[in-house]
Amino acid sequence: xxxxxxxxxxxxxxxxxxxxxxxxxxxxxxxxxxxxxxxxxxxxxxxxxxxxxxxxxxxxxxxxxxxxxxxxxxxxxxxxxxxxxxxxxxxxxxxxxxxxxxxxxxxxxxxxxxxxxxxxxxxxxxxxxxxxxxxxxxxxxxxxxxxxxxxxxxxxxxxxxxxxxxxxxxxxxxxxxxxxxxxxxxxxxxxxxxxxxxxxxxxxxxxxxxxxxxxxxxxxxxxxxxxxxxxxxxxxxxxxxxxxxxxxxxxxxxxxxxxxxxxxxxxxxxxxxxxxxxxxxxxxxxxxxxxxxxxxxxxxxxxxxxxxxxxxxxxxxxxxxxxxxxxxxxxxxxxxxxxxxxxxxxx
Length: 347
Prior knowledge:
Blueprint: E1 4-9, E2 54-62, E3 67-76, E4 90-97, H1 100-103, E5 106-107, E6 118-126, H2 129-132, E7 136-143, E8 151-159, E9 171-174, H3 180-183, E10 191-199, E11 212-222, E12 234-241, E13 250-251, E14 262-272, E15 281-289, E16 294-302, E17 308-309, E18 312-313, H4 321-332, E19 338-343
Parallel strand pairs: 1-14
Antiparallel strand pairs: 2-3, 2-9, 3-6, 4-5, 4-7, 7-8, 10-11, 10-19, 11-14, 12-13, 12-15, 15-16, 17-18
C-alpha cells in the first residue's frame, strides 16, 4: 500500500501517555517549527469604521542586499475611530502573501491623535527577488488601542509580479475595505488525501494485535502554497497529541519541486485502548524543506475537537467539523479504512 511504513507505540493511563518507539520507527531528526499560532492578517480587528483616505508609499528592491523595501511615507484623511474624542492612533502593517507566517509582519510606529499621520519609515524583508515576484504585498492601516482592541482603517493589496520596479517614486493609493475572501476567512493552503483506520486489540485473532492500533496512510496533497517559482520541497510530519516528544515524531520523505506531492506513506501507532481515541489527536502538518529551516504550509488535526484531553483543557483539541466527522467515522468502523480529502489550515 505504501513505500514506507513507520510504527510507534502509544501507551496511556487516565491522565498521561508515555510512548515507546517501535522497531520500525524511522528518522527522528528534529525540524524547526513556527512558534505560536499563525494568526490571520485581520486578527485583533474590533472596529467597525468604514475604510477611507489614502496612503503614500513606494516599493524598491535592493539587489545588492537582496532586500525588499516598503517606504511608508504618510496617510491622509483616515477614518475617525473615537468619535467622542475625535481621534485615531494609526499605524501601518504589511505582510507578504500567500504565506504570511513565513515572511512575517512588519509595522510602523504609532502616530497619536491624527488622521493625517506622517511616518517616513522603511519596512524591510530579506527575500530573493524570484521568490518576491510570486508574492502579494498586503499593506493595511490600523488604529492602535491600548487594550489591544485594534480597528481596521483600510488596506491595499499589490501583485508584485506585475509591479513596475522602475517606479521608485512615492505615490498615493486609496485605502479599500477588506477583501471578501479575507472577511470570510478564506485561507486556502491545499488539501490532503489520506486514509485512517483503527484496529482494536484482539480483533485479528487471540491477542492479535496485543493492543489497539491507529493506521495513518498519507497519500497525497494538492495545491500547496508555492513559495518558489520551482514549487516547494514538501514533507509531512505526524504526532499523536498530547505527546510532542521526538519519540512520537514521524515524517515522510521530502518530495521536491512539486505543489501536488504524492507521499504514499503509512504510519502505525500501537498501544491504543479504545477509550484513548476520545482524548488523543493525530496532528499532520505539511512543511517546506530548506537547508537552514523548514516552513509551515498547513495542517490538520484529527480528533473529537472537545478542547479536552484526559480531563485537561488543551488548545490543540480544536478539530474542525470535517476533521471530527472523519475521526468519528473511524471510531465507528473498526478495521475499515476511512478515506477522504481534508483542507489544510493554519494551526
